[in-house]
Design brief:
The protein starts with a strand and ends in a 5-residue tail after the last strand. The protein is built from 18 helices and 28 strands. The chain is an alpha/beta fold. It is 30% helix and 23% strand. The protein folds into 4 domains: 2-76, GIY-YIG endonuclease; 141-319, Rossmann fold (3-Layer(aba) Sandwich), CATH 3.40.50; 331-371 and 433-567, P-loop containing nucleotide triphosphate hydrolases (Rossmann fold); 583-668, ACT domain (Alpha-Beta Plaits), CATH 3.30.70.260. Bound molecules: zinc ion (2 copies). One zinc ion (ZN) binds next to loops. One zinc ion binds at residues 379, 381-382, 384, 419, 421-422, 424.
Length: 673
């Protein structure tokens, strides 16, 4: 019998590696990258072996034995471990918190029944893994150039695939992927998308295009059993195309040869709790480490990526035209709501445009990024408003459900019959959400088939798909939607997009708001006119209702001119010393009382001075109180990424020493400030 000392990381909130003793036969000596079940206090935990050796500083009497090693599956590769190590170190979290939660639950379980069953099922299904292409659409010259460049990259290269909506980016991904899959018998391609349920067309397209290749999806919507099958198929190299959301970037992919990040500017790539990583940034790191190409695709790239293009770090591949012949970009017009006063949220210009589509049998989409009926209910008599009792926010009126709902803490109340303070029965909704817009439209166009798609109307599993299918089948004349309808869909008969009330984002204190608004408007506008215009037919139209028709952002939207807009924003960011020209980290604290949170941050600020680091004053967060917890934040800034990283490592140790009841967390490269 042999003895070994295994160094093992566990998913506990401590940055520590534990030593365990392993005893067994020589043939079974564990390897780095294998999972091992170990005793931890009274519990049994699944850990990852990061080192196999002979010596330990632990008192032999206290050293515990490994319970079992999961030898049924091959070890995770050292490249994968390096990726996790990088993520842990960069985002300042314990390695165990990166490594373990990313694994399927069934793999972490004490019992191995589920794992054994999954492995059996996987070995049974023999795959014919020949990418053999059928009916491949012909690419236009720009698409062809892009696909060839990507597929023929000899090592690492970061490409920004910059293409207007409808320019056929997906086709470039698929044909580049086909070449990579063809280049070796077991090569793998990873495709990341912001939200898989909103892009079902992509999954269908991939399956249709590569009927003989095993596709695995990885996202949080999968049932545990499925998730384990898919993860294992990827880990064992059986799945050669992996389509997933941000969490898929941490999957084990031993033969990864190409990474594609679709809609790279999308905020969904940023994890907002626990390990607050950016899947896009990790993807670039992973591609670099593996010396493989990576493609970041967008019609409105993030300013970070745009900046990397001008500095030469990323290579740009441009698609300036829509892929479908005669499918021209829609005409975007501004409607001044000071001159054309909206009734029920709609100007007469937008009304007659909708009417015209109804007459012609075409579809319209009305975009309003605010769900519910009205954002607040109020009493004219005494000034009462529907404040949430637990948050610094209004409770939103949901009229069909007869509820007031807080969108921050999920508190729900029945709509009061009369004013809680003065008993006035005439309570007024203020502002407009999608439900109210729908109500108004039903009155004005009683004969039209109207459908609302938002988080409320699609709460039930599968409801979103049913709704989108109805639109695609032409069973809807007017579609009303939030950002849910903006992504990915090719609505074949849609020729009008009305943007109801985009102004609120113009004057946000978040300096990223205008970049996001622009991206959102271009994305929604891009839903229109995706098909070839009929002979003598009309151009598709996008109408933007605004109080500020002279705002430079709208001028850029009208001319579809992202380039100049982005260049201008970057100049502003440079002058104001904002990202991507400096690097930031955000320390957040929360407590039952605001002063406790602020006090903690003040001490965090004062506990250390460090050359090149700016520690700003703590401030309450915009929505200070959520679910009876007060929240504040402290912004850390530095001109150098490496100096910031070095500082954070020391600072975190000092923060642990501060005695406070405040809970705190640190985010590197925050996107929501
Ligand atoms: Zn009142
Ligand atoms: Zn609330």
């Amino acid at each position: 019998m042999l003895h070994r000392i295994l160094k093992i990381v566990l998913d506990i909130p401590l940055d520590f590696i534990f030593d365990y003793r392993w005893i067994g036969e020589e043939v079974a000596i564990p390897r780095v990258g294998q999972l091992a079940l170990v005793p931890f206090g009274r519990r049994k935990l699944m850990g990852l072996i990061v080192e196999v050796g002979d010596s330990t500083d632990v008192d032999p009497a206290k050293l515990k034995n490994v319970i079992a090693v999961r030898s049924q599956i091959g070890p995770l590769s050292c490249q994968w471990l390096a990726l996790c190590n990088f993520a842990a170190s960069y985002y300042q979290r314990p390695l165990g918190e990166v490594v373990i939660p990313g694994l399927p639950k069934n793999l972490r379980a004490e019992k191995t029944m589920a794992l054994d069953r999954a492995l059996k099922k996987l070995t049974k299904t023999a795959d014919n893994q020949d990418p053999a292409l059928w009916d491949v659409p012909k690419l236009n010259p720009a698409q062809q150039r892009a696909a060839d460049t990507i597929a023929c990259t000899p090592g690492f290269s970061s490409y920004l695939l910059y293409g207007v909506t409808g320019s056929g980016k997906t086709e470039v991904y698929l044909q580049a992927a086909a070449k990579i899959l063809d280049s070796g018998s077991n090569t793998q391609v990873l495709i990341l998308v912001p939200e898989i349920n909103l892009t079902p067309q992509l999954e269908g397209n991939i399956r249709a295009r590569f009927p003989n290749i095993r596709l695995a999806t990885l996202h949080s919507g999968l049932a545990e059993g499925e998730r384990m099958m898919h993860w294992l198929a990827a880990h064992q190299g059986q799945a050669r195309i992996i389509l997933g959301t941000r969490l898929a970037i941490l999957a084990s992919l031993p033969q990864l040869k190409l990474i594609i990040v679709d809609e790279e500017h999308d905020l969904s790539y940023k994890q907002q709790e626990g390990l607050r990583y950016s899947a896009r940034d990790l993807a670039v790191w992973r591609a670099h480490q593996l010396t493989i190409p990576i493609v970041l695709g967008s019609a409105t790239p993030s300013l970070e990526s745009w900046c990397h293009v001008s500095s030469g770090r990323y290579q740009i591949l441009e698609l300036r035209e829509r892929a479908v012949k005669n499918a021209e970009l829609p005409v975007i017009k501004l409607v001044d709501v000071e001159r054309d006063r909206p009734i029920e949220g709609l100007t007469s210009t937008l009304m007659s445009a909708i009417k015209m589509r109804l007459d012609r049998g075409e579809q319209s989409l009305l975009f309003l990024n605010r769900r519910g009926y009205a954002p607040v209910l109020s009493c004219d008599a005494c000034g009462w408003v529907s404040n949430c009792t637990r948050c610094t926010a209004f409770m939103v009126l949901h009229k069909p459900e007869r509820r007031l709902r807080c969108h921050h803490c999920s508190l729900e109340l029945r709509v009061p019959r009369d004013c809680p303070t003065c008993s006035n029965v005439d309570l007024q909704p203020l502002g407009r959400g999608t439900q109210r817009l729908e109500e108004g439209l039903r009155t004005r166009f009683p004969e039209a088939r109207i459908l609302r798609i938002d988080a409320d109307s699609t709460r039930l599993k599968g409801a979103a798909q049913v709704a989108f299918d109805m639109v695609h089948r032409g069973e809807v004349d007017i579609l009303i939607g939030t950002q849910m309808v903006a992504k990915g869909h090719d609505f074949q008969n849609l020729t009008l997009v009305g943007i109801v009330n985009p102004d609120t984002a113009l004057f946000s204190q978040d300096y990223r708001a205008s970049e996001r608004l622009f991206a959102q408007l271009m994305q929604v506008a891009g839903r229109a006119g995706r098909i070839a215009r009929r002979e003598g037919g009309n151009l598709s139209e996008v109408l933007v209702q605004t109080r500020y028709p002279n705002h430079p952002l709208y001028a850029a939207v009208v001319t579809h001119d992202y380039d100049h807009f982005a260049d201008g924003l970057l100049k502003e960011r440079q002058q104001a010393c904002l990202p991507p020209y400096i690097f930031q980290a955000l320390l957040r604290a929360e407590a039952k009382e605001l002063h406790v949170a602020i006090n903690f941050l003040l001490r965090a600020k004062d506990c250390m001075a460090y050359g090149g680091i700016t520690l700003n004053d703590p401030i309450p967060m915009t929505i200070t109180r959520v679910a009876n917890v007060d929240r504040a934040q402290l912004l850390v800034e530095c001109a150098s990424r490496s100096v910031l990283q070095a500082f954070l490592k020391i600072w975190l140790v000092a923060l642990e020493e501060i005695k406070s009841t405040a809970k705190w967390s640190l985010e590197v490269d925050p996107v929501d400030i």
